[in-house]
Fold these 4 entries.
Entry 1:
Amino acid sequence: MELRLREAGKAARAARRREDQLNEELVRARTERARKERSLEEAREEVRSLAKRVEKAELDKAKAESIRSCSGGGGAGPSTSSNEGFFQDVLSNFKELVETNLQCSVCSELFVFATTVVGCGHSFCEECLEEWRAMKEEGRPNCPICRANFRSTVPCLALDDYVEKAVEGFFPEDAKEAR
Ligand SMILES: [Zn+2]
Ligand SMILES: [Zn+2]
């Protein structure tokens, strides 16, 4: 009897501790979200100015090309066009690579606030993973890809950076709209 009481006390204390922990996590998550929202605004501003720079660079490039073709095709010689073709090839392959590998398998879009499952290492948008988690509220959440149970997730800043750079470089149109 006494043993059972002791056990119950222990369980209650553990539950209490867990609750405190969860509250702390909640506060931390809220602060983090507020911080991210601010930085998202800054990032949008940056993307807008970068898109302008890309436009300008493309204009400059076009000008340079027309000057070169006017000056009698000297300089780089006859290999220029095949070089250009090769470059375009590499570029479009790379674009495809970026599109398929920086994609969240829940929403099939580029990651937004990439978040990695601690344990299996798969990554998703923060929101997609949260929605998935909410759906699985009873019991432990599992990874949408490999179904491994997990306790926690971490933001994947490297992926976020990569997505941001890729969008700036290859999809300036999308950058203006969605991000
Ligand atoms: Zn997603
Ligand atoms: Zn997984």
Entry 2:
Amino acid sequence: MSKTVRRSLAGLALAASATAVPVVASAQDAGAGTPLRATAVLHGPGGFAEARPRSTGGTEAPDSPSSSTGAGSGNSTGPIFPIRGRHRYGTGSAAFGGGRGHQGQDVFAACGTRLVAAIAGRVSQATYQSAAGNYLVVDAANGTSQTYMHLARPATVQEGDRVDAGDPIGVVGQTGDAEGCHLHFEFWTAPGWYKGGKPVDPLPRLRRWDAQD
Ligand SMILES: [Zn+2]
């Protein structure tokens, strides 16, 4: 997203408080109907191994140590770069703080490129908004939030779901106010997205995770 999204952040805050149940239902349907989930199992050498089955409702889904292939750091829930394909970082108005108050970093990738949760947490938003398009917010255990916007289709997870780092969440798109296929990624300090936290420049983290891939 570039410029007009900033005007609509109040709208996003509204979306945060007014959760539309029918939207959630359609997101779930879309998720179940697409082949996306089936693709989550590849990535042999990369690190993350399997898509955890969708946890329904609030039942606890214990962390499964078996979800690690043993590659990488050995921490199965460590941060993972969210775009699973070729990408490039936006600059200028597509960078954090670009224009007037761009609250995230745009990372361009082909529409349809798989997205995974960068950090484990609970999905607090998974809906559509005119500026953000299809988007979701994940609240991590430490209170920070990660926001993923402009997905091509509704997120393949739904509000209340718990996700591990590396779990599929959808695919890159340009829904909402977006020019060109990209992920708009935000990182909010605790206590999180429109809950008192503040957006910080996510680029250093993104680059670090990218380099660890
Ligand atoms: Zn953006």
Entry 3:
Amino acid sequence: MSVASPINLILLSLFAVLLYFHFRPRQPVSLPSGPPPAVFRIYTPTKLLEFNGQGDRSVYLAVRGRVFDVTPGKNFYGPGGPYENFAGRDASRGLANQSFDEDMLTKDLSGPLDDLKDLDQDQLENLQSWEERFSEKYLVVGKLVAEGDPEAPAS
Ligand code: HEM
């Protein structure tokens, strides 16, 4: 029987097809791009306001000078969320008072930070437990300083 018998030719073509499917060029695997790495920065209240979750921006809020990236909780703090007033703001007084009213926010963004000196023991405990919750759940991405503070970045 010759090597070029029909059965051998069929087997050879089958082998060639298998080789092709095994080694054919494939689409490169593209992984979804993750969030940009968080960098620790100094924020003034005006700068922090940019991170209020509008559009596809991140949501940050500050508690006693620490800036948290609360973007994973965008349904709470993003536009239309129940705590949207806190987005891009110093939320300390509101958290201490269990209130998300506008009155709880520092009005003058260019003025001094809220020193919270008038808070009583209960309010301070409230604030502390919120702070602990945020520390467990969210990344600290910066520090909040008043406009004009020596640490504030030049605008
Ligand atoms: C009508 C009363 C309220 C109801 C029914 C309510 C309900 C809720 C619920 C269901 C959660 C989600 C809990 C979780 O899944 O971890 C939550 C979280 C939260 N609530 Fe309220 N809440 C109320 C009042 C308030 C008030 C007055 C404040 C003001 C400080 C507040 C601030 C927050 C904050 C900061 C979170 C955490 C969100 C996070 O984990 O990032 N809530 N609330």
Entry 4:
Amino acid sequence: MATNMFKTNLIEKVLFAIIYFIFSTTNTTKAFDTSSCASQPDLTIIPIYGKCSPFKPTPGPWADTIINMASKDPARLDYLASFVARRKPGSSAPTASGQVFNIGGYVVRARLGTPGQLMFMVLDTSTDEAWVPCTCCTGCLSTSTPFSPTASATYGGSITCSATKCYQGRGAQTCPAGPGSTSACIFNQSYGGVMFSATLVHDSISLARETISKYSFGCVNSVSGGSIPAQGLLGLGRGPLSLFSQSLSLYSGVFSYCLPSFRSYYFSGSLKLGLSGQPRRIQTTPLLRNPRRPSLYYVNLTGVSVGRVRVPLPREFLAFNPNTGSGTIIDSGTVITRFVQPVYNAIRDEFRRQVKGPFSSLGAFDTCFEKSYERLAPIMKLHFEGLDLKLPFENSLIHSSSGSLACLAMAAAPNNVNSVLNVIANLQQQNLRILFDTVNNKVGIARELCN
Ligand SMILES: *[C@@H]1O[C@H](CO)[C@@H](O)[C@H](O)[C@H]1NC(C)=O
Ligand SMILES: *[C@@H]1O[C@H](CO)[C@@H](O)[C@H](O)[C@H]1NC(C)=O
């Protein structure tokens, strides 16, 4: 009797919880309660169109948002390919001008200067430098919240063009008055086809409770050919100007993130900086260093399985080659995983063999099929040296907004001269903790529901 009562009670509680959940979520949709968002000094990773992001979306069906965002991947891949060191100045021509370039799907909160000026900066693991629009900026979005150097007591002014730090940045301009000059360090960059010019300055930056003093970052003075992220970008690459290179004593070159599901409009993931709080036991794969592309996190992808089949892939398309830049990187700014064409074709063909057609295309996805055949969809595995990553279905399939189609959520890299790079992207990283140890050259991956 007592057990029965307990059971009834439990069922009631569960029902109540479900109803309460439905009620509270519908309620939040209406009230758009962001009060819990901005107050804490934490390191949540916020989907750029999520509830706690200041970049208000037209939420719409999330599948449409992803398809729209994925359509900008080719410009992203071009950007990644442009990293070959020692390009001739001015040779990085804009590739897709005139658009708002919503690169990167996630933002984190940082405070620049003293008192801290709150910025929602795009997280970018393939860029070293951080940059923010400054008050003087011409061509910046009118909606951007610029950083005001004059309002900061710790603003350290610009770095000179002859300082080592200056030419560690991409697109650094030569000193107008020759070496030894004390003019400001200016760098011009193309970010996804949008040109901007910034002065390298220094001031403190606070992430959660920690402050890095004299952090060097770009103060954007002018933008042309489109828009850059409205509150700047935080570079988490591994080159000399990145956050980790500038904070070695604080974070020991270690960080991890867990990206929330794209669907989780109400939720956030987390960024963890430094050794504390990192998973102790985690499978790892070596991090490879390409001196010609020092910002990028290269890993050794050795194969891909579709269901039980290990897809035969031509070795040369997976092999790491520092000279050509070929190989595989993990990136937080590309929306869907891109394989070079021959690799993608082989994976896709095997996938199609195991699922029932006919197949249609939707945006960047060329393997969409009737959702009722989804039960036939094989599990995909990415094999890295020393680490096998089994992709949960939410990381390998995407549904159309109408819900009638399911698509293989990967694509081929754009077919141009630079396509030698395989990119493991956001959608495939959802709800995984990805740990980067830049000192011991390791990447760890573990399943974590961080929604
Ligand atoms: C860098 O950008 C500034 C501002 O747009 C421009 O005046 C300058 O000519 C650019 N330099 C180069 C080498 O493109
Ligand atoms: C990648 O892993 C394979 C298999 O373990 C190995 O033969 C190869 O040397 C590795 N490549 C690099 C660049 O470490």
